[in-house]
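Quick log. Single chain, no ligands specified.
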Amino acid sequence: MKSAIQNALPVLAKGVPQFKFDGIDPIRIESLTIGEGTGQVHVVQNYKNVEIYNVPNATVQNVEATITDDEFQVVSDIVMDNVQMKAKYSLDGNILVMPIKGDGDCTVSLEDVKSKMTMIGEMFQKKNGKTYVEIKTFNVSLNPAMVRYDFENLFNGDGALGDSMNAVLNDNWQDIYEDVQPGYEEALGEVFKSLANLFFTKIPYDEMF
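-> predicted structure:
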């Protein structure tokens, strides 16, 4: 199954027109909201017109699967070199006790990401007699070696303040990311579950692996 998943990634990147499955490089999301953290991050992160790049370029390191007539669970260990999120952002709050406010374009880059993705689903049959999978839960862990932030138009376009804030964010990326990591993982888990179901509910299980 490891090789099957690895080989499927470039296919999914381009899309599968016959099943009306659009490509996932980039993954496009209408909106994404990351809630406040419990430590250093006291700001709700609102993103629109989100595009996430390079996920299909991942390397699948290990796959453990439990698949029976009434159980479907696949756990994959994946490494991604550079995952980039580009979006329109809106921020108004505090990070590291410093005020942060702005709206505009942004890029958030996660480098050398170690990820564990756990899909839990159920088998079901359609009227055509074929067996499909519906993913009920998609858990994601994202552990990057580094995160880089680039928020344009902070503080009403004050270039000096904006550059200083981006420098602070990047110098303290680990504390900042770890505080909101559960929010990113939960939000992206829901995105990946929706994408997985677009695929799994259209292609019979025995035609996938």
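Residues 41 and 119 are 29 Å apart (CA to CA).
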